[in-house]
Amino acid sequence: MNKILIITHTADNFSIEKVTEYIEKNGCEVIRFDVDLYPLQNKLTTSFQDGEWVSILETPDAKHRLDDIAAVWYRRAYNMGNGLKEEMDPKFFGAAMGEIRNTLFGFLESIDTYSLGKPSVYRRLDSKEEQLKIADKIGLKIPESCITNNPEEARKFILKHQNVIAKMQTGFAIYENGEECVVFTNVVKEDNLEELDSLLYCPMQFQKKIEKKKELRITVVGRDVYAFEIDSQQSEEAKIDWRKDGVNLIDKWIRTELPSEVEQKILELLDVYNVDYGAIDVIVSPEDEYYFIEINAAGEFFWLDNLTEGHLISKSIADVLCDKAPRRNNMVLA
Predict the structure, then answer these.
(1) Omega of the bond prior to 39 within 30 degrees of 0, cis?
(2) Cα 216 to chain centroid, rounded
(3) Element (DSSP H or E) covering residue 44
(4) What are the pLDDT digits (tens) for 16-63?
(5) Are 96 and 87 within 8 A, CB to CB?
(6) Partners of residue 115 on adjacent β-strands
(7) How do residues 188-243 score in pLDDT, each as one tens digit?
(8) Strand 164-167 versus strand 204-208 pairing type
(9) Which pairing describes strands 3-8 and 71-74: parallel, antiparallel, or unpaired?
(10) What is the maximum span of the chain, computed from C-alpha positions, in angstroms?
């Protein structure tokens, strides 16, 4: 029986169970590696002896051999080393966490089989600048953009385009009194120009504001494309960034069809990155022009999966992992 390794964490959502269910229907076995239990509860060993590489994962419940797995889904790597800080001398904690990350990511990079996501893939897709350049090169429309830490360049861009939004390039959050405050996309107003000097300390991305007829979230798995639209302008909170009112809009997304040329360019984008999963954000203007905003390497999909008959996105993920659907070959070891 083929074994599929899923890299996730104990607090992940129900998508893991749905994908697991479809993997098992395909006649494959699932091995779940919760990284927040590593290294205190999960133990990972790789050895080369007698001319053979062997990898073993020991969990509280079982012992698994991993060097003969058929595929891996690198879903999440949240909260590695959970509880470790309380178990060891604080002066060693930072160094130990470096070894933990290096060991786990080194193992994931070196797996000699198909992988739906890898740490190196996620790192590459962190570059919003590269995303925009590739999208532009393959013919997708993108907003006029400026990424800078130069306050004067930002002012010139804002004054030229007048209607401009500002956003961070990462999942930027500020923590105050133990609470996480996420920095959303915001419109740059005239009185914000005086605050631009702070760019010297932290660069930002500025884009010409695209008026929205609707927003799309396009989830691509292999060659399967699942496009959903939302009228984000129905909510005052969501007009600039739909995530601000995401909870109230969660069941208002509607399955939609993409123009064939847009769909082909979206698939070409994944071809360039040689990945089989991507969650793409697109704005459709009142003139029905489709503007690429970004691709998320491990973007969430389950709220949309719930709106399909039979959790089709989860099924597509399972089919790709079990080699029952077309996929891009990303095996890199000789």
Answers:
(1) yes
(2) 16
(3) strand 43-49
(4) 999 999 999 999 999 999 999 999 999 999 999 999 999 999 999 999
(5) no
(6) 72
(7) 877 777 788 888 999 999 999 999 999 999 999 999 999 999 987 776 565 667 66
(8) antiparallel
(9) parallel
(10) 69
